[in-house]
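Page 42, continued from yesterday. The earlier attempt failed because a stray header line got pasted into the input along with the sequence. Redoing it now with the clean sequence only.
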Amino acid sequence: ANDATINTLITGGALAKNGTGNLTLSGNNTFASFAINGGTVTAASDAALGAGTATFAGGTTLVAQGTPRT
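This time it went through. Structure tokens are written below.
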């Protein structure tokens, strides 16, 4: 499995994560849709998952590391 970290802003369009391994996103992203088709996604900021919909396939994992809300 290959892991990757993207620390920059991702804008517009759609993003898909395929295969095993972990993808860490930490930018204030504004992409419109996100499909998680395998592995793990770590959201390391409050806006990491973009501005639209996120769809998770069975067997995938989301790790949230954003700011806790009270």
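Notes: The beta strands are 4-6, 14-17, 22-25, 33-36, 40-43, 53-56, 61-64.
Reminder to self: strip header lines before submitting.
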